[in-house]
Design a protein that fits this description.
- With 324 residues, the protein is an alpha/beta fold.
- The protein has helices at residues 10-21, 47-54, 69-78, 94-97, 120-126, 162-186, 218-227, 253-256, 315-321; strands at 2-7, 25-30, 35-37, 42-44, 58-60, 82-86, 104-108, 116-117, 131-138, 147-155, 201-202, 234-238, 241-251, 263-266, 283-286, 291-294, 299-307, 313-314.
- It folds into two domains: 2-202, Rossmann fold; 218-321, Formyl transferase, C-terminal domain (Methionyl-tRNA Fmet Formyltransferase, Chain A, domain 2).
- It is built from nine helices and 18 strands.
- Strand 3 and strand 4 (42-44) form a beta hairpin.
- Helix 1 packs parallel to helix 2 (47-54) and helix 5 packs antiparallel against helix 7.
């Protein structure tokens, strides 16, 4: 079975690795162009490009694939049996979707039709889902709207983060694409249309997406801390400096009363102290061992944090070295 692979970030590398290990012929990999990254803004290759070049596979990097007629002609000449797409980052036009014998198959990190679009992994954690998974889908001209081919589910752990779930689903996607291609070749898969009435769409996160609103429930904020770990990370401000929060436990209002800690600070910039009158949301309570922040409902017992310019550390270590 001849496969053209399309993908860009590290999540897609697991799919490419699985295809190579399964022995599929991959004459071409298509990924996004090199983009500026890092402090100095130097152009860097995508994770998929690095992996593909390591395997000795030819790589194409179209700026806009729908307008790249030369690349389309090359793809037709290769006559692939299937095109596998994982987090490529561009919508494929009809004339590309129609090239392969088995069409274009997408590996999507959610249980479709839930979480169509970008960043589905983080949203599963943010919304407190009990399970997540990977779907292989027969691509059409819409955004994650094609028929479902296969699906695998996994439960979310109590302390699941966006990073840990990302790794699990990347591995699962590699396993599922091999099973899907085997099923397509054997004719044993019956595509199932998605229930559009159950569809949800999610978008990309930015560096400011992790800013904490302390008037929200502690449960919601704790999920944000886990869901946006490692990027873009949940953060607030303490003493005019950004403070990233990496781990926390939820305390109910009743549990808060068990800890008669002194109030030591407010976790937000001076100009943002626009809380409703009488609220204690964002107020920090601490002694030498415990750091608690009140929320709109309940509170968070902070376990791990990182003050701007400092390394990531346990809350107890932070409290030993910080003066409020």
């Amino acid at each position: 079975m001849k496969v053209i692979f399309m993908g860009t970030p590290d999540f897609a590398v697991a799919t490419l690795d699985a295809l190579v290990k399964a022995g599929y012929e991959i004459p071409l990999v298509i990924t996004q162009p090199d983009r500026p990254k890092g402090r100095h803004g130097e152009a860097q290759k995508s994770d998929v490009r690095i992996a593909a070049e390591g395997y000795g596979i030819r790589v194409a990097t179209p700026e806009r694939i729908r307008k790249d007629e030369a690349l389309k002609a090359e793809m037709r000449a290769l006559a692939p049996d299937v095109i596998v797409v994982t987090a490529f980052g561009q919508i494929l036009p009809k004339d590309i979707l129609e090239i392969p014998k088995y069409g274009c198959v997408n590996v999507h990190a959610s249980l479709l039709p839930k979480y169509r679009g970008a960043a589905p992994v983080q949203w599963a954690v943010l919304n407190g889902d009990a399970e997540s998974g990977v779907t292989t889908m027969q691509m059409d001209e819409g955004l994650d709207t094609g028929d479902i081919l296969m699906m695998k589910r996994i439960p979310l752990e109590a302390k699941e983060t966006g990073g840990t779930l990302f790794d699990k689903l990347a591995k699962l996607g590699g396993e599922l694409i091999v099973e899907t291609l085997e099923g397509l070749e054997a004719g044993s898969i019956t595509p199932v249309p998605q229930d559009a009435s159950q569809a949800t769409k999610v978008g990309l996160f930015t560096k400011t997406s992790g800013r904490i609103d302390w008037t929200e429930d502690a449960v919601v904020i704790e999920r944000k801390i886990r869901g946006l770990n490692p990027w873009p990370s949940a953060y607030s401000f303490l003493g005019g400096k950004q403070l990233k929060l990496w781990d926390a436990d939820v305390l109910t209002d009743a549990e808060c009363k068990q800890y008669p800690l002194p109030e030591v600070a407010v976790m937000m910039p001076e100009q943002d102290r626009t809380m409703p009158e009488g609220t204690k949301a964002g107020h920090v309570y601490a002694d030498q061992k415990m750091l608690v922040v009140r929320c709109g409902r309940g509170a968070l017992l902070i376990r791990e944090l990182q003050l701007e310019g400092k390394k990531r550390m346990k809350a107890e270590d932070f409290l030993r070295g910080h003066r409020f």
